[in-house]
Each structure stands twice: as structure tokens, then as C-alpha cells.
Write a structure and sequence with these properties.
- With 144 residues, the protein is mainly alpha-helical.
- The protein has a single domain, classed as Arc Repressor Mutant, subunit A, CATH 1.10.10.10.
- 69% of the residues lie in helices and 9% in strands.
- It contains seven helices and three strands, in the order H-H-E-H-H-E-E-H-H-H.
- It has a three-stranded antiparallel sheet.
- Strand 2 and strand 3 form a beta hairpin.
- The mean pLDDT is 95.
Length: 144
């Protein structure tokens, strides 16, 4: 078996640490990771997002998203709206928007503050390299 090079070890460590910080933030806000990610996705999508896109953008499994959405519906935080034969949008309710304002939008503000403190060319370079890694990983994942 091939060993991971030091760069990928460091990369994976950094990704894990970042995910750990997001988990801690969600926990301190009284949210599960899945609810936090769904609220975040809805916030950056103007409070409405196709269910299939919620799955893709959160990185959560379809089953996890559906379970979390069902709980959020029961709590009156979201509602589903049919947009086609098999497609649905997830929408924040007024209560959901209030919760999102206290939680996910604060995370977005924190992230914007961090990127705002970087030079614009550094932000663009970081995003470019991250996207390059994503596309290469998508391509190579098809080989497995």
C-alpha cells in the first residue's frame, strides 16, 4: 500500500481540524452538524434550495439530509415545496430564518471577516487551488 505523502497528511489534518472547529461552533450553538450545514446552505441560497443541492453542498448523505429535514419540519424550521414530479425545494420558515440569523449567518459573517482580512489575490489563489483539487479528485475518483 502506498503511503500518504507529507503534503496530503498535512492537508487532511488541516481539513479535519477545520471540520472540528465547525463541529464545536455548531455544538456551542445547540445544533447538530447536519442541521448547522443545512441552515448554512439555505442561508447562502437565499433561504430556498433544491433538496438535491442541499445534499451535494453539505456533503451529507441523502439519508442524513432527509432525516434532519424531517426533524426540522417537525420543529417548524423548514418546509418542502414540490417543484416537479420528483424534485423538491427546502425553504426556511420564519422560525427557521430566526434560528439561521442566530447561528448560520453568524458563521458566514465570521468566514467573510476572515476572507476580508486576506489580500484579494490570496483569496482567489486559495479558491483556485481548492477548486483544482476538487476537480482532480472528482476525476480520479471515477477510476476507483
Amino acid at each position: 500500500m502506498e503511503k500518504a505523502c507529507s503534503a496530503i497528511k498535512r492537508y487532511n489534518h488541516l481539513i479535519g481540524e477545520i471540520e472540528g472547529i465547525y463541529h464545536d461552533i455548531s455544538f456551542r450553538m445547540g445544533l447538530s452538524d447536519s442541521v448547522s450545514k443545512i441552515l448554512y446552505t439555505l442561508c447562502i441560497s437565499d433561504n430556498r434550495c433544491p433538496l438535491s443541492l442541499v445534499c451535494r453542498q453539505t456533503g451529507l448523505s441523502k439519508q442524513t439530509v432527509n432525516s434532519a429535514i424531517r426533524r426540522m419540519e417537525e420543529q417548524g424550521l423548514v418546509k418542502l415545496a414540490a417543484t416537479g414530479r420528483k424534485s423538491k425545494d427546502v425553504l426556511l420558515t420564519d422560525d427557521g430564518k430566526e434560528l439561521a440569523d442566530r447561528t448560520a449567518r453568524r458563521i458566514i459573517e465570521m468566514e467573510n471577516s476572515i476572507f476580508g482580512s486576506w489580500k484579494q489575490e490570496d483569496v482567489q489563489h486559495y479558491l483556485f487551488l481548492t477548486e483544482e483539487f476538487l476537480h482532480a479528485l472528482q476525476s480520479k475518483s471515477g477510476e476507483i
